[in-house]
Amino acid sequence: MKQKTCTLMLACLLLLACSNTKKLAGTGDAEKGWKKLFNGKDINDWFVKINHHNVGENYGNTFRVEDGMIRVSYDQYGDFNDQFGHLYYKTPFSHFQLRFEYRFVGKQQKGAPDYTLLNSGVMFHSQDPRTMLKEQDWPISIEMQLLGGLGDGKPRPTGNMCSPGTDVVYKGVVSPDHCINSTSKTYDGEQWVKGELIVEGSKLITHMINGDTVLQYSRPTIGGGVVKGYDPKYKKDGTLLSSGFIALQSEGQPVDFRNIEIKQLPDNNR
């Protein structure tokens, strides 16, 4: 009897060990291929374009690194004066999975438009900022819009889509709306939220918040309005967007970003 019990216990331990090994192997496989876009120390691999300023001018030290985070701050500003800005990673991407964390902090900058309260975003399939004119407010791009709850008990989803100088196909038709709301929950206060983008060129784009799929659409195309001050030769309406630059947004609300990583995905259409 004792021998049978020992044998049974040994078998159970072996099964448990195999199960844990498989879990660890699966976790390792899931983490393969990820690359840090932000090293937690500096933004030497990124460059800035802020409205009313030339590319490369980080006016007011808007984008800075503190405590392992990229912080978007306005403590060296006066009036905001529509100085919408973006911090771009140095190379473009086409098929990729991007993950990051963000949180809203502090108060909205004086003079920033009302709609920018607890509002930021991550741009992708963006035009090269070196093609933007000094007085261009937004890059021609697609935006994963990030919103914070206003603490009033009303829903305010995050992980939405906005389309400066672009159009997208949503539910089978070209959307007439500049922004499309996601199905995400509302996140109040200064809590960290996990955002994720899965971009398959122009075929399919998926937004995820805290692990949940909250929005999908396809066929991002140059078109639409909203963008001002651009060079017309870079806004060829009807051009399908299958690649471009990734950028973190600054539009008047202090916000922190961290753990920004990317995994390049195969282009199955090749």
From TrEMBL:
It holds the Pfam family 3keto-disac_hyd. Residues 1-25 form the signal peptide. Residues 33-263 form the 3-keto-alpha-glucoside-1,2-lyase/3-keto-2-hydroxy-glucal hydratase domain. The keyword Signal applies. Keywords: Signal. GO terms for molecular function: hydrolase activity. This is DUF1080 domain-containing protein. It comes from Mucilaginibacter psychrotolerans.
